[in-house]
Amino acid sequence: MATDGPPANDYCSVCHEQFNQPCQANCSHWFCGNCIMRVWHHGPALQPCKCPLCRRLITLLVPSESMTRARDNSEVNGILLEIERYNRRFGGGSLTLLQRLRDMPFLLRRLVREMADPQRGFNLVLRARVILSIVVSIIYVLSPIDFIPEGVLGFIGFVDDILVALFFFLHIAAIYRAVLLNRHGGN
């Protein structure tokens, strides 16, 4: 299982040094916790900062496991408190559909990695909600009862199945985003 941290031999794009207290943004880029907080503090305080690499709005910061384990260190704890404050301020706001679609791969990759990790005691209720969503989506897609029947309209009949799958993935990503906000937003 891959570790929950930045790639080995990679550097922070802000300070151009090895990562120090790394955290990952919802665009999947990694930064030093202190560096990304500096980027935020140098911009408008009432708006989320933009990723220095891809320019997407950062609406969620997820600290690495090593950083959360070192919470007893006062420097690390200070950065974690800043990240929690950032997530409380910008992580729970209403996101546009485009932002949700762009965040979906990041959230689903993390969710799959976290659910597959035997060392992590994954929340049983969340696991049940994810499994129930998967089962209901599969039953709908495989059932002969459709809003737009495939037998009548051919390929166009798959549109509702594609929409159900898209809504399923968006739902799962929203559930996991709430978990991450609860975990890293100090709620």
From TrEMBL:
<feature type="transmembrane region" description="Helical">
    <location>
        <begin position="162"/>
        <end position="180"/>
    </location>
</feature>
<keyword id="KW-0812">Transmembrane</keyword>
<keyword id="KW-0479">Metal-binding</keyword>
<keyword id="KW-0862">Zinc</keyword>
<keyword id="KW-0472">Membrane</keyword>
<dbReference type="InterPro" id="IPR017907">
    <property type="entry name" value="Znf_RING_CS"/>
</dbReference>
<keyword id="KW-0863">Zinc-finger</keyword>
<dbReference type="Pfam" id="PF06803">
    <property type="entry name" value="DUF1232"/>
</dbReference>
<dbReference type="GO" id="GO:0061630">
    <property type="term" value="F:ubiquitin protein ligase activity"/>
</dbReference>
<dbReference type="InterPro" id="IPR010652">
    <property type="entry name" value="DUF1232"/>
</dbReference>
<dbReference type="InterPro" id="IPR038896">
    <property type="entry name" value="RNF170"/>
</dbReference>
<feature type="transmembrane region" description="Helical">
    <location>
        <begin position="124"/>
        <end position="142"/>
    </location>
</feature>
<protein>
    <recommendedName>
        <fullName>E3 ubiquitin-protein ligase RNF170</fullName>
    </recommendedName>
</protein>
<dbReference type="GO" id="GO:0008270">
    <property type="term" value="F:zinc ion binding"/>
</dbReference>
<dbReference type="InterPro" id="IPR001841">
    <property type="entry name" value="Znf_RING"/>
</dbReference>
<keyword id="KW-1133">Transmembrane helix</keyword>
<feature type="domain" description="RING-type">
    <location>
        <begin position="12"/>
        <end position="55"/>
    </location>
</feature>
<dbReference type="GO" id="GO:0005789">
    <property type="term" value="C:endoplasmic reticulum membrane"/>
</dbReference>
<dbReference type="InterPro" id="IPR013083">
    <property type="entry name" value="Znf_RING/FYVE/PHD"/>
</dbReference>
